[in-house]
Amino acid sequence: MRLCGQDYDEIDAGLAGHDAFLRARYPGERAGRQPVHTVYVPADRLDDFRDWGAIALRAMDEHDFPWPDPAVRAKLAREPIEDLRVDFEDGYGVRDDDQEDAAVRRAAAILAAGPRPPFLGIRIKSLEAATRRRSLRTLDLFLDTYQDLFTVTLPKVSGPDQVTAMVTLCEKLEKAYGLSAGAVTFEIQVELPSAVLAADGTVTVARLITAAGGRCTGLHYGTYDYSAAAGVAAAYQSMEHPVADYAKAVMQAAAAQTGVRLSDGSTNILPVGGTAQVREAWELHRRLVRRSLERGYYQGWDLHPAQLPTRYAATYEFFRDGRDTAVTRLRRYLDRQDSGIADEPATARALAGYLLRGLDCGALDDASFPRAELTALT
């Protein structure tokens, strides 16, 4: 050996800055449960969210749901909505200030009174010039009444400057309301091509994550705004259009190991009308949910109560289908057994994460591993 301790020290010193950058920028997957969906309810119709489970169950009965599953019915009775977003943007529209002020205060009071889903937040208007001040006012008023844990969804982000402004806003509100530093977090909605690819050719979405300084918890793909902005005709706008797949692949690469979670978008083909129409919409939604899961997008948007049965049916099926194989591969890896698949540590983490997600969402009630052991592997 020809290297001495000084050589090692010089290499360590030369890479110290990069080591610090990796720890800060790529801390790994965010710990804890990720909701399987986000439900957007316009602020003026917030009372309706508590009826979503009952409406979903009635739809299953009225239209003879093709994929009956007692666990799905139990989920709809117990916890139909995992992540609720009170919408003050597109779903709510433009109102005069007095109307929106009243809607903000009422929504905050409803949530404070409970019961409420395990995850929730509000979607404010964008920080574009036309809606910026209204957006700031809405978030300020909401915090004046409701200060429990919640997430802010920031729509139509077009560049890092808007994210930097959002960070400044969060800091000001935390100080004003006596909240701990970092208490206010936000998700970024990717609804514009400029949020994926910048004018100078750089990947905007990676810069958005950096600009958030650790406050960004998720990237949510906006199916229809993004497709329209990319010039896709309305009839062909879809979660599975090539422009959608490209945008989400870039989002996935940018968010990997940053602790920022991904959410796919929605389908606007709703299960309403006669049984034939409802079942056709169910088939589409179930297929799209499964497609997203297979591509590593473990969350999506639901726009109607009757989409909940297919959300959970497809999600539960996805985790149950792969459970036995995942358990076998993970056991062989841990026991150092030879098998036909050469799994590596990264794959073992993925297998453990898959089983944990199945437990978290209720698809699995037994992963054949202690939860603590699975958590340690991830």
Automatic annotation (TrEMBL):
One Pfam match: DUF6986
Alphabetic keyword roster: Lyase, Magnesium, Metal-binding
Names of the cofactor(s): Mg(2+)
Protein name per Swiss-Prot or TrEMBL: Citrate lyase beta subunit
Phylogenetic lineage: Bacteria, Bacillati, Actinomycetota, Actinomycetes, Micromonosporales
Gene3D superfamilies for this protein: Phosphoenolpyruvate-binding domains
Molecular function terms from GO: lyase activity; magnesium ion binding
InterPro entries: DUF6986 (IPR054255), Pyrv/PenolPyrv_kinase-like_dom (IPR015813), Pyrv_kinase-like_dom_sf (IPR040442)
Keyword presence, Mitochondrion: no
Native source species: Actinoplanes campanulatus
Gene Ontology biological-process annotations: oxaloacetate metabolic process
